[in-house]
Amino acid sequence: MESVVCELEGTLLNDKDAFSYFMLVSFEASGLVRFALLLTLWPMIRFLDMIGMKDASLKLMIFVAVAGVPKSELESVARAVLPKFYMDDLDMDTWRLFSNYDKRVVLTKTPKIMVERFVKEHLRADEVIGTELSFNRFGFATGFVRGDSNNTISERVANFFNNEAPTLVMDQLHPPNLANQNYNHQLLRPLPVIFHDGRLVKRPTPSTSLLILLWIPVGIILAIIRIAIGSILPFWAIPHISRLFGGKVIVKGKPPLPPSGENSGVLFVCTHRTLMDPVVLSSVLRRKIPAVTYSVSRLSEILSPIPTVRLTRTRDIDAEKIKRELSKGDLVVCPEGTTCREPFLLRFSGLFAELTDRIVPVAMNYRVGFFHATTARGWKGLDPIFFFMNPRPVYEVTFLNQLPVEATCSSGKSPHDVANYVQRILAATLGFECTNFTRKDKYRVLAGNDGTVSPTYSFVDQMVKVVRTFIQ
């Protein structure tokens, strides 16, 4: 059996410096104070590296990033946040060579708890050899490493292989030879990261982290101004005024005319990228269109400039609510049931197809610079605030033609077929991939539960989350 041992930093990953990943842990597991403290210590960390005290600099980063953090929080960040950033930094050619071997071992200087899930699930490694963190009896990280982590890497590799030498070793001292490798480039792909969480859009390198810290006070003020203006101004004026404050909405296609006469309203079926999808759609159409919601916070409903219709996830009750709203006029629905940040569409619920044949698909997409506008782990009430904190949020709204009658349930098609058809044409418009994943699958991955309920919190828990995000 052929085996390979490969270093993570600088070999499987392009960046050999793990500092930005400790910054991610600091921000997502604790908050701004720890994030700023670790950034302040970066010159000292670099100095220790330059004088050959890399072990000391690593231990300093570990202590500042994790001391006092619950193990459950570290596991949550490793599950829901870090894989996306590791994947973005992955050297694909090195991974293809790595994946050719029967037995695959990854070496890392960062704590094993941070990388094990990504390496085993997405890179298909068999084992990870890295630093083991120490936890007290209450489950909090002490900031120190366990005593057995002081063994040399070579000793731990030798123990794993029972003193037999691996077939290939790839690290910064022994870079991989990628020439003349016989592997199928099309078949060898790591498992993609479809679901991820956390607020930061970019990996927080020292320069990016400094920009984020300097921008946050400005961003909070800008978010308050943007939300206030959106609540006061008429909808027809919002697209024009938003440009003055850095926002931009790109509209493609021809939107339908408002309902008139005895015709029931149009059902706008949208891809679900952020909480702002229905609001942006209403601003483009220059009229307030009610939106179907599932699990948005009460604060988001209060701040919403458009009417919201909260569903129960009980099929008959929800169907009756949607029919009632359509009898009054247009309605917006996002049949994915939850947001997805990556270029994938989740499986569409077929409920919308049963209720009307006046269906207009709308492809929604967005671009932000610093902060994501949705989260599964934190308090959803902060989602619109984080969206408007971005320097230049951009939305793209593409109207597709209303579905012909022969493509709806009126022609005898099943709701499942109609939903799948709408999913496919929206994915093709955006250049996304269709999946069979659902809302339950998302929360199973991100929250680590069985996916039967979303990770909602009591009011007290929500306030604790807010305080931890901005103060701790």
TrEMBL record:
Primary localization class, coarse: membrane
Membrane topology: Multi-pass membrane protein
A GO cellular-component term linked to this record: membrane
Biological processes, Gene Ontology terms: cutin biosynthetic process
Transferase among keywords: yes
Any one GO molecular function term: phosphatase activity
Cellular location(s): Membrane
Record field: transmembrane: 20-45, 210-236
Location of the Phospholipid/glycerol acyltransferase domain: 266-367
Protein name: Phospholipid/glycerol acyltransferase domain-containing protein
Organism: Glycine max
